[in-house]
Specification:
By secondary structure, this protein is an alpha/beta fold. The protein is 40% helix and 12% strand. The two termini are 17 Å apart.
């Protein structure tokens, strides 16, 4: 989405907070009191059911619920059950420190024909799935049918939202912001301060040093907790939720990082999965190096599709009559704004080559708007921003809404990524990799930040179990997507098996968004059968 790309671009230019407040929550914030935790090694897990949170109209609007649909949301919320499950912080010490995982359950509408429960995860790591059952049912009529015969189970993974968490990294705006896709995902912003225009090596070194200091301070703030934020521990927590709810086997629906969680759950608990659908599949291996290289290359490829689309509409956008001509025009525009960044009087950020690159890497539903913005920037003359440019960039400004549930936890995302990432590059290697990325991806590469995600992270690398097991599995890959490139789907199938379901679009996690695709997903969970793909979200003309 445009908002996500520009929110990341704006945040990347903010300076890191000078101090990092560490907040440890002994129990989930929606739970009153603190009953004695039961030892995980000696008792079966159970759900402590409690009243669900109440959300204001303003909170619901910040989550995208229109006034017309608020009664529908509140009706679903009234059917939703909320609670927590105690889990061990460290599964090697099951009788040691306990933490809580917050869950929700939206029971099947047709209990007489109930088929079981489906655990849902929207991605991350660090994404909240607490309200995902309601979000799923409200997507469209086809997606809503998933709740006819299945209990839909939402949860906040450890380190997120209403579950036990710690915050040692600055987080972005609250409930009003959609989670990054980040694949899902978008990485957290560089710890700041870049000037408009191409990044210099000197500025990159400052960013690197600040990032190392931030990671080191965060990782050492509570290593016992942060070191246990891993995909496999979230999978173990999920299995305790399964037991607490009395499910002999899980069904699972995961998007983006949720697909990695699904793979790790299958690998850790073979025989406990009935049906599993994974949408926008991430790579079966994890390395920041691979993530950056693969996603950048996919974005550059997808721009070729965009350029061809624009060329067919030369009378509208005036950027060229051929794909090659449009590419040359956009590249020239990117170089122009890098050489001479423009500050408009009504924008809080400068427009440089990175802005042009972000326009060029948008998903196809955004092509009409960003193409219009590119046309405007090509001919701009005034002190104020062209209208479409301003409209896009102003959308990126998030707002905090009191009482909104957390959508994305930056600390959990960083800890899981870095606890599992073997590539913690030194500055010279990171700078060289950044230069190669820019060279290989001349149009969209400038949208990539100088990537130093795990440099300086002080905790040891931990391996994820990924193995081939039995059970039904569908891997949904989007043919033109940049956030989780299609090749990751085929790589995952080679590693663990499953059926590939191809979506002919470039939109991250879109299966539930498109009624025909959602119908295929619901049919799979109902019958166990599925065809080989759907159209997905199509570009508008």
């Amino acid at each position: 989405m445009i908002q996500r790309a520009y929110r990341a671009g704006q945040t990347a230019r903010r300076s890191a907070a000078p101090a990092m407040a560490v907040v440890a929550l002994a129990t989930a914030s929606l739970v009153t009191g603190s009953p004695a935790a039961k030892a995980a090694g000696t008792t079966e897990p159970e759900v402590r059911w409690r009243a669900c949170p109440a959300y204001s109209d303003d909170v619901l609007r910040s989550r995208g619920v229109t006034d017309q649909r608020m009664p529908e949301f509140r009706a679903l919320m009234s059917r939703t059950e909320c609670g927590t499950v105690d889990v061990p912080l460290d599964y090697r010490k099951p009788d040691g420190r306990q933490i809580t995982v917050a869950i929700t359950r939206l029971k099947a509408a047709d209990q007489a024909r109930r088929l079981g429960g489906i655990a849902l995860n929207p991605g991350g790591p660090g994404g909240s799935g607490y309200l995902m059952p309601i979000d799923t049912v409200m997507r469209n009529k086809e997606a809503a049918r998933l709740g006819d015969r299945y209990d839909l189970i939402g949860f906040d993974p450890r380190g997120v939202g209403y579950s036990t968490k710690i915050d040692c990294l600055p987080s972005g705006p609250g409930g009003g912001e959609p989670p990054p896709s980040p694949g899902e995902g978008e990485p957290p912003p560089s710890p700041g301060g870049e000037k408009p225009g191409p990044l210099t090596e000197e500025a990159a070194k400052l960013i690197y040093d600040r990032g190392v200091a931030m990671n080191d301070a965060c990782g050492r703030s509570d290593p016992a907790f942060l070191g246990r934020l891993t995909t496999v521990n979230v999978a173990r927590d999920l299995d305790r939720v399964r037991i607490a709810l009395g499910e002999k086997k899980w069904n699972f629906l995961g998007v983006s990082w949720g697909t990695r969680l699904g793979v790790v759950y299958r690998s850790t608990f073979p025989g406990k999965v009935n049906r599993m659908f994974l949408d926008s599949v991430v790579s079966p291996r994890y390395s920041v190096d691979d993530f950056v290289v693969d996603t950048a290359a996919a974005a550059e490829r997808n721009f070729s599709r965009m350029a061809a689309w624009i060329a067919l509409r030369h009378d509208t956008y005036g950027l060229g009559t051929t794909q090659k001509g449009v590419r040359a025009a956009v590249l020239e525009l990117r170089q122009k704004y890098d050489a001479d960044p423009k500050r408009f009087t009504d924008l809080g950020m400068a427009v440089d080559g990175s802005v042009i690159a972000r326009f060029a890497m948008q998903d196809s539903p955004e092509w009409p708007q960003v193409s219009k913005a590119l046309k405007e920037l090509r001919g701009e003359t005034g002190p104020t921003a062209p209208p479409t440019v301003k409209e896009i960039l102003d959308k990126g400004a998030g707002r905090m809404v009191p009482g909104a549930p957390e959508v994305q936890n930056a600390t959990m995302r960083q800890a899981v990524a870095c606890n599992e990432d073997p590539s913690r590059l030194g500055f010279s290697a990171a700078w060289a990799a950044h230069q190669r990325l820019l060279e290989r991806n001349p149009v969209t590469g400038r949208a990539s930040r100088f990537f130093i995600e795990c440099a300086g992270w002080p905790l040891p690398v931990q391996k994820m179990p990924v193995r081939r097991t039995g059970g039904s599995l569908v891997l949904s890959g989007h043919r033109y997507e940049a956030g989780t490139p299609y090749e990751w789907t085929t790589q995952t199938r080679s590693a663990i098996g499953g059926t590939v379901f191809t979506v002919d679009d470039d939109v991250h996690g879109s299966v539930l968004k498109r009624p025909d695709c959602a119908a295929d997903l619901v049919a799979y969970f109902t019958t166990g059968r599925i065809d080989r793909g759907c159209d997905g979200v199509l570009s508008t003309s």
